[in-house]
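// run 5 | inverse folding | seed 20
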């Protein structure tokens, strides 16, 4: 079965392909990946669990070590770089086809690369996915089908219903793990025995 990855190009797509198998082996999925900066690029990895639930600080630490090890070997970026790992959060971006099915019934906003009907920005209720297009019911009651390849960015809008749904999911997690899960943990990983400013050799992480 083909992995449902975010739509990426170039270096970001290459890195996503490199780290996805390791993420999936740990029970996580890639939500978004960005490479920012030039002199010392920052690789930002946003992830969640395979069931769509949020990850916690320990999960971020685990992901950072495993992903960092993969990138140290594959070495996709010449020179030094940093790695950030974060949870998708409640008002998360919608980056994959299945996100539009998973969050049907919730409110979202989307921005297109190319305009449709004279506009690039849309806001309304997510209805699902059909024939490679995200379906939305807009605030005026009309419905649109936005081709996934034309969606520049999209994310959920924080509402009481979304918060309640997330709280329900987190409650189930707490019952299973007896551990609270923060909403949007984020960290810059450190290697064991390394402190800030260490490990700055070309082709490796800086911290």
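// decoded
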């Amino acid at each position: 079965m083909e992995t449902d990855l975010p739509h990426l190009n170039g270096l970001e797509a290459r890195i996503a392909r490199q780290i996805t198998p390791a993420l999936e082996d740990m029970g996580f999925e890639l939500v978004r990946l960005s490479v920012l900066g030039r002199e010392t690029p920052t690789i930002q990895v946003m992830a969640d669990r395979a069931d769509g639930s949020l990850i916690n600080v320990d999960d971020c630490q685990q992901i950072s070590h495993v992903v960092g090890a993969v990138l140290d070997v594959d070495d996709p970026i010449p020179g030094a770089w940093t790695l950030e790992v974060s949870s998708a959060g409640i008002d998360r971006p919608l980056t994959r086809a299945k996100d539009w099915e998973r969050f049907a019934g919730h409110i979202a906003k989307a921005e297109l690369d190319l305009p449709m009907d004279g506009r690039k920005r849309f806001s309304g209720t997510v209805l699902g996915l059909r024939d490679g297009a995200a379906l939305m019911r807009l605030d005026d009651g009309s419905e649109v089908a936005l081709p996934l390849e034309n969606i520049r960015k999209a994310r959920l809008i924080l509402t009481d219903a979304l918060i309640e749904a997330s709280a329900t999911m987190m409650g189930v997690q707490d019952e299973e793990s007896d551990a609270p899960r923060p909403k949007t943990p984020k960290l810059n990983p450190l290697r064991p025995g390394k402190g800030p400013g260490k490990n700055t050799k070309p082709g490796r992480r800086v911290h």
